[in-house]
Amino acid sequence: MKKIFFRTSILIFLGIFGFVLYLSTIGIKTDRFNNQISAGVKKINNQLELELNEIGIFLDLFKLQLSFKTLGANLKNKDKTIKFESINSNIGIKKILKGQFSPTELDISTRSLEIKNLISFIRSIENTPQLFILEKFIKKGYLIADIILKFDEQGKLKEDYSIKGLVKDGEIKKIRNLDLSKINFLFNFKNNIFDFNDTQLSLNNKSILLPKLNIKNKKNRFLISGKNINNNISLSKNEIYQLLNKDFFFPGIISAEFSLNNNFSFLIDKKYRIKDLKIDSNLDLKEMNFSSKINLKKYLPEINDKITFTNQKIKIQYEKNSLNIKGKGNIILQKEVDDIEYDIIKSKKDLKFNTLIRIKKNLVNLDLLNFQKGLDSNLEIILSGNKNLISNEILLKKILLKEKNNIFELKNLRLSKNKKIKSFDIIDLDYLD
Hints:
With 433 residues, this protein is an alpha+beta fold. The chain contains 6 helices and 27 strands. Helix 4 runs antiparallel to helix 5 (129-137). The model has no long low-confidence stretch (mean pLDDT 80). The longest helix has 24 residues, at 2-25. Helix content is 15%, strand content 57%.
């Protein structure tokens, strides 16, 4: 009798062990739980219909839960459908024993989805002005995503969701003169934080790289920060004016070639206005040409029709309506190359400037003072002051010309908005005419 009981116990134990091992490794397939999982999806939105194939069931002995996995599922809402590659769900064994089949987690992997169709599907569930505008602007593109949804004990969806994936070959309809295409990036959305990595796009056929872009949603206000790197960008006059206002900092720009390393952040408020814009840029300006409206022929007898900046290293900072540009490099005003250094600060009220130009193998004439700089000497010109942007009056705190032992200095020269002299403090002339 004892042997029979012992043998029976061994067989039962081996049977249970074999079943657990089989369920943990190979699993079983059934459609018995399809309705329960579909009902869990309906708790998210009762308009949704989830079509499932046979479900593979696996046992996770360490977590005391059953894992459900199905391939090729369809999510429907009215006449719109999204196709999924796979859906995984976990349900605790205690819940199943109590007759509760609501999942604690739902892992969804999509197939390649057309973005316009995805937005149209979401709009069929919850139509918002933002989604309407987004659908109108997006021209094409494809998305692949892995979605993790978590549920509480009552089967309600938590805010602790996670969506990650990639977008390929995106294109946005032309906005004014801006053409955005070839958009590719990786994304990760979690707890109202949106991370975009390795973003590549083409802006008016110019390649742009954004290694990082971060968006945080705080009470319908979006804090956006990121970094972009642009190498070997070449822009014509028309392309520059498409991107910038014609009256931007340097009017009359003809062309520009540069590389840019740029960090930025800004806030979008509830009314979609941009606030707290901050920019920190390092600009490697290979060449920039612009036409000058100032006639300097009597001072620079061989002046060109255009002014050219070359090999400029420029630091640009913008914060709270204050723009600071600091740089140095070469400038071509006449036949030969000269040097220039500058520090410019622009606010709403005024424009402060501090500039040094070192003229080397070029001519300079000051007929009023009966002075001429030859080709065999260097002339340093220092110009510092500020312009009141409200009254348009200019204060030149310091004008200094120095060539060998020749010095021309003028302090606190005040000019009216019509460029007429109002007053000055000191004129110091020490030169050989």
